[in-house]
Design the sequence.
């Protein structure tokens, strides 16, 4: 052996021969000679690099000047860091602690970062320290507010060190289960409300709502509180289309709408507003009720507009106000929707909300804050809906504004019943 190269990991110790075979001068006989090995530079197992070992022979032996002593090159490389297999997905109810056990090798007191994906980058949320052993396990506790988002991505990152190379774990998807959810037989609270009725609808005879109101105002006809697409509206539209060299159908389509000077975006958005959700997975039952009521109160003073369910200040009738309050609390009363409400035959969506079997009917004497109060007209059919605030008061949209009134208004004291949204 003249020269040999041995590659080891940074956590390993080189094993060198304790004896060398030497040929006696003038003989063909080999003897064993004890050897001590000396490295250049001084060996450090936890430091990557190349170390050259040469033997030191006992002074009991004379070495020929021409003799070539062997050498051993020890190449120390960083160990491959390993981390125990992680689950691809975790599910946990909000407001509870969340932790994940991991095992890392080599450990030797190395730091472990728990990172969350936010705004297009990985952000370190917590750092843990492994024990000072070759392999170590730890339980990584997630931050206390991990549950504030519906779904999040997490990973572990171990920086490079003298003991081992860097490691980035696979991503873990954490799905947050709601702290509060209605029983399965009732309307389920959602993380996102997506309308299944398009706001890009054409206006025809019988339609109501904000888009019709805008067209009627253009022609200076109709009632701002009770906008309807009447035969008069149709005649005005038809004449307008002829003047603008459009197909004279008497129906307002997108081209006609824009020729009137209205924006392209308003064509699909004006009648399809959905209140931003004000609750999150950690919200309590009370939080949902208050999200509903606080949203309704933003409409105070907003005009009553039949068939409308717009933004605060734009206009909403009784059903439209309730829809937006429900949306803000994560409740979608589909097939009732702010879009369908403007179409012929759906003026009294309060009747359809009452028919919804996924809303619990409760006795009037048991009414609570956040319940829906339904009223009937002289014919006996439901024609009004309001949100109960407690203390004998409701918030409602009734000609001609959104107001807070006593639950038993003298003009409208025929109460049909009570429905509960949150159970």
Sequence:
């Amino acid at each position: 052996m003249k020269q040999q190269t041995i590659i080891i990991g940074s956590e390993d110790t080189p094993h060198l021969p304790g004896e060398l075979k030497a040929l006696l001068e003038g003989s063909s006989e080999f003897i064993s000679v004890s050897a001590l090995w000396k490295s250049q530079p001084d060996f450090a197992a936890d430091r990557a690099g190349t170390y050259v070992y040469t033997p030191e022979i006992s002074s009991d032996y004379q070495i020929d000047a021409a003799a070539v002593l062997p050498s051993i090159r020890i190449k120390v490389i960083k160990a491959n860091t390993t981390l125990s297999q992680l689950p691809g997905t975790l599910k946990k109810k909000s407001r509870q602690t969340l932790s994940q056990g991991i095992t890392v090798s080599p450990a030797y007191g190395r730091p472990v970062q728990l990172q969350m994906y936010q705004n297009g980058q990985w952000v370190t949320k917590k750092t843990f320290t492994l024990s000072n052993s070759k392999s170590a396990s730890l339980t990584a506790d997630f931050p206390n507010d991990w549950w504030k988002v519906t779904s999040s991505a997490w990973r572990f990152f171990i920086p490079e060190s003298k003991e081992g190379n860097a490691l980035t774990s696979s991503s873990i998807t954490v799905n947050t289960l709601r702290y509060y959810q209605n029983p399965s037989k009732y309307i389920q609270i959602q993380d996102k409300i997506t309308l299944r009725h398009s706001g890009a609808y054409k206006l025809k005879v019988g339609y109501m709502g904000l888009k019709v109101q805008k067209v009627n105002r253009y022609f200076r006809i109709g009632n701002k509180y009770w906008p309807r697409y009447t035969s008069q509206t149709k005649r005005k539209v038809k004449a307008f289309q002829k003047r603008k060299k459009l197909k004279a159908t008497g129906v307002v389509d997108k081209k006609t709408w824009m020729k009137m000077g209205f924006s392209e975006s308003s064509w699909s958005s004006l009648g399809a507003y959905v209140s931003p959700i004000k609750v999150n997975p950690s919200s309590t039952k009370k939080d949902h009720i208050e999200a509903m009521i606080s949203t309704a109160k933003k409409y105070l003073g907003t005009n009553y507009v039949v068939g409308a369910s717009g933004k605060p200040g734009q206009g909403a009738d009784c059903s439209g106000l309730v829809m937006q309050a429900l949306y803000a609390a994560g409740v979608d009363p589909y097939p009732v929707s702010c879009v369908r409400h403007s179409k012929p035959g759906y003026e009294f969506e309060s009747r359809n909300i009452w028919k919804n079997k996924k809303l619990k009917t409760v006795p009037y004497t048991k009414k609570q804050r956040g319940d829906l109060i339904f009223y009937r007209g002289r014919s006996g059919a439901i024609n009004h809906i309001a949100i109960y605030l407690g203390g004998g008061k409701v918030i409602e949209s009734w000609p001609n504004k959104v107001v807070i009134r006593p639950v038993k208004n003298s003009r409208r004291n025929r109460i049909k019943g009570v429905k509960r949204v949150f159970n």
